[in-house]
Write a structure and sequence with these properties.
The complex is a heterodimer of chains A (about 575) and B (about 180).
Chain A: H1 7-26, E1 30-35, H2 38-42, H3 45-58, E2 63-68, E3 80-83, E4 90-92, H4 100-109, E5 117-120, H5 136-139, H6 157-162, H7 167-175, H8 178-188, H9 200-209, E6 216-221, H10 230-237, H11 239-253, E7 257-262, H12 267-283, E8 298-303, H13 313-320, E9 344-348, H14 349-361, H15 363-367, E10 377-383, E11 390-395, H16 400-407, E12 417-421, E13 429-430, E14 455-460, H17 465-479, H18 485-502, H19 510-524, H20 528-532, H21 535-543, H22 545-554
Parallel strand pairs in A: 1-2, 6-7, 6-9, 7-8, 10-14
Antiparallel strand pairs in A: 1-3, 3-4, 4-5, 10-11, 12-13, 12-14
Chain B: H1 2-9, H2 14-23, H3 29-34, H4 36-47, H5 52-62, H6 66-75, E1 87-92, H7 95-99, H8 102-112, E2 126-131, E3 144-146, E4 150-152, H9 157-174
Parallel strand pairs in B: 1-2
Antiparallel strand pairs in B: 1-3, 3-4
Helix pairs in contact in B: 2-4, 4-5, 5-6
Classes of the chains: A alpha/beta (about 575), B alpha+beta (about 180).
């Protein structure tokens, strides 16, 4: 397939792709899809794939074996979806290699193994298997970005176009002016998904207004936080969606230069996005004079080398420029002077992935989702001993309680809920009695919590608040770039105090020193990392103050985690 | 230790030269600068670390100074400027792993196996990189990745000891088995 010359050629290609897609699902062959993504590979999905391939080729049944991305249910990986002729697709979880022959034998006998099924991908139940959308994990989700994750082959542009991909880009390109695109994005009330929640439309507009050229549009797929893995799953499952959002962004800014900066450790996400870019070039959706419209766009992929700070906008731009990724003071803002000192619009992966649906369905449709202040959906990841661990997509406005106990199923048996860490390493935790707060950009702030990039960690009684606070601050200490003093020296000071407490040498005045030092770091640090570094500690201290005091006065760690617990009891005041 | 120093002297730059020639052809100096980190990653992928000769080659190929290359190699945590041990263990220390007890594993590694500053055991068997981000396999927490492909889930101190013993046995039995070359 060569480059498509114009819109009609694209329509032709899309019609063919759709017909092929429909034939795939209505044919007489077995269609077996295996979810291959970072989390499922770790749990042996590649072996499952190989075994399936082996066992299927031994039989005499016509089959198609496909790879798909991740559908968010990490807890059920590796998953396999089976579509038999005359049946709707059935999703099976926990398909390790030992189960493969058993499943295939059962299916050949006509036994659908409802006990292994997560659900059937249809609106109605099928032979006793309920629809997968009624699974507790999915029931409360609203999937826009993940709609086709785990269904299409992420390495096939044809699959993406078959399910309606690149239509939004074509709509923008041929039917809208760049101003109209920005107006829709503004009307959608889409806010940056990287954590800060800055309105995307306003950012794009200021980028557009700045006269200097060339301009750059950058996707931030760095994702270096220790408790979030949403962007890489999105890139692994539907890379073209992000690319389409980026293309629309470039069109709105009327610039031919797009970038995606992907964390170097996300190998599969990187590989699949690069593949997506290659395919788009081959098909003529990237390059010069796209579909004869006169608009050109080139996308370059750059990788990071494992420094959390490079997720910060200005640091990321220095990193792309091949310098040490250290932030700089603002102003000038990056929409005025960013990459190569030119106007640069930088948004999170998830933000760009939200764009195609906004262009397709209109800004006001998107604004009607979620809450008034925080429109749309949000990808969230939950870690810790929860029942349904994975990536979920929820509408803003869902309460924290619903998120923890319904979507993610609450804690597994034998674990007693203690709290939930919010906002990555940038905010404090919530206790169980505070969980009725709705999830949006504003509601969590008074509680010292934050949606941030959507990474939550549920923790149980086996986790010590002092030790957890130390872990979170130690992360910021390690990742501090060292450019400004309050952060470079302040975070180690906090860790030192916490270590003193953990070892049983804490003093009552230490808690005041923590407050005092934190205030300095928050107020005087240069960039976002430093300004929020003490937040988890302050949150922990506020929520679990009695635990801190217990460590100091009684020399006791109730979770039995801190070094204090392993020491000979000193006795009070000893 | 001697062996590792020998490894430092003998580095076959041919594969790196080929990759740079094929895929790292900047149009201008601006793009050349953008490609430095990527080129270093290729080198690290090939050799398991970035040998000085490779850094020099990258600097010459992209027309930047060697200082620039080292500035980046020492800033970004992923890069190694010392040869790693025979095996490489990526130990995830993300929040999910922490909550599941990875701190104990990290502590045990430091105290029981006398890891040097570069994370390598004195006998050169194993290099451990404690990864502060998230490996994204949280369902297996605490999780580690051995030699870039094999995942070990639900890791605890006992399982770690077993693993190190296993690597030692393999080394005695199979000589050079599993080196990065």
């Amino acid at each position: 397939m060569g480059r498509l010359s114009d819109r009609a050629a694209f329509e032709q290609y899309a019609a063919k792709a759709r017909a092929r897609w429909d034939r795939l699902w209505s044919g007489d062959q077995w269609v077996i899809s295996v979810g291959i993504s970072g989390c499922s590979i770790a749990k042996g999905a590649l072996e499952t794939y190989r075994h399936l391939s082996l066992h299927l080729s031994e039989g005499h049944i016509p089959f198609v074996l496909r790879q798909v991305g991740c559908a968010g249910w990490c807890f059920a990986e590796p998953f396999v979806e089976v579509k038999l002729p005359g049946h709707p697709p059935i999703v099976y979880g926990w398909m390790t290699t030992d189960r493969v022959p058993e499943l295939l034998d059962a299916l050949r006998r006509g036994d659908l193994r409802p006990d292994w099924a997560l659900g059937v991908r249809a609106a109605e139940a099928w032979e006793g298997i309920p629809p997968v959308i009624e699974h507790p994990f999915l029931r409360r989700q609203r999937r826009l970005l993940l709609e086709h994750a785990g269904i299409i082959d992420p390495e096939s542009i044809e699959d993406y176009i078959a399910i309606g991909g690149y239509r939004a880009f074509l709509k923008a390109l041929f039917e809208m002016t760049p101003e109209e695109v920005i107006a829709e994005v503004k009307a959608s009330n889409l806010r940056g998904r990287g954590g800060a929640g800055f309105p995307t439309g306003i950012k794009w507009e200021s980028g557009r207004r700045t006269p200097a050229r060339p301009k750059y549009v950058v996707v931030n797929s760095h994702e270096g936080e220790p408790n979030v893995f949403k962007d890489r799953r999105l890139l692994e499952s539907n890379p073209h969606l992000v690319l389409e959002g980026l293309l629309i962004g470039c069109y709105a800014l009327e610039t031919p230069y797009g970038y995606n900066y992907i964390g170097g450790e996300h190998a599969l996400a990187l590989q699949r996005f690069q593949r997506a870019v290659e395919q788009a070039y081959e098909l003529g959706l990237l390059g010069d004079d796209i579909l004869g419209s006169g608009f050109s766009c080139h996308v370059r992929v750059r990788t990071g080398g494992g420094a959390y700070i490079c997720g910060e906008g200005s640091a990321l731009m220095y990193a792309i420029m091949g310098q040490r990724g250290q932030p700089r003071t603002k102003p000038p803002r990056s929409v005025e002077e960013g990459l190569w000192r030119r106007p640069t619009v930088l948004n999170n992966t998830e933000t760009f992935a939200s764009i195609p649906a906004i262009i397709q369905n209109g800004g006001s449709w998107y604004a009607s989702l979620g809450t008034k202040e925080s429109a749309g959906t949000k990808l969230v990841t939950m870690q810790g001993p929860v029942k349904y661990l994975g990536v979920a997509e929820i509408e803003f406005g869902l309460s924290m309680r619903e998120l923890v106990f319904e979507v993610f199923g609450g804690l597994r048996e034998g674990y007693h809920f203690k709290g939930i860490q919010t906002g990555g390493v940038s905010a404090g935790p919530l206790r169980e009695d505070e969980l009725d707060v709705p999830i949006d950009f504003e509601a969590l702030t008074p509680l010292g919590a934050m949606v941030g990039s959507g990474g939550f960690v549920a923790f149980d009684e086996s986790v010590c608040a002092v030790d957890f606070a130390r872990y979170l601050v130690a992360f910021s200490r390690y990742e501090s770039c060292g450019k400004c003093t309050p952060c470079r020296l302040g975070t180690p000071a906090l860790v030192e105090i916490l270590d003193r407490i953990r070892h049983g040498f804490g003093r009552p005045e230490d808690l005041d020193i923590i407050q005092y030092a934190s205030k300095h770091i928050i107020e005087l640090s240069l960039c976002g990392l430093g300004q929020v570094a003490p937040m988890p500690l302050l949150g922990m201290l506020e929520r679990f103050r009695d635990e801190f005091i217990e460590h100091i006065t009684e020399r006791r760690c109730r979770a039995g985690v801190c070094p204090i617990a392993a020491r000979e009891p000193l006795g009070v005041g000893g | 230790m001697e062996e590792r120093k020998t490894a430092r002297r003998e580095v076959d730059l041919q594969p790196l030269r080929r990759i740079l020639g094929e895929r790292y052809r900047p149009r201008d100096h601006q793009e050349a600068q953008e490609l430095v980190v990527g080129a270093c990653q290729e080198a690290q992928h090939l050799y398991g670390w970035v040998p000085p000769q490779a850094a020099q080659l990258i600097a010459e190929h992209l027309g930047v100074t060697i200082n620039r290359v080292y500035g980046l190699l020492t800033f970004y945590a992923d890069f190694r400027t010392e040869p790693p041990g025979e095996h490489f263990l990526w130990l995830c220390h993300g929040a999910a792993c922490y909550v599941a007890g990875s701190q104990k594993v990290v502590d045990a590694l430091r105290t029981e196996y006398c890891l040097g500053e570069d994370g390598t055991t004195p006998d050169g068997l194993l290099t451990v990189h404690v990864f502060n981000g998230c490996l994204g396999a949280c369902d297996l927490a605490p999780v580690a990745q051995l030699d870039h492909h094999e995942y070990i889930g639900q890791l605890d101190v006992d399982r770690l000891r077993e693993l190190v013993e296993e690597l030692r046995t393999r080394r005695v039995a199979g000589g050079n088995d599993g080196t990065l070359e």
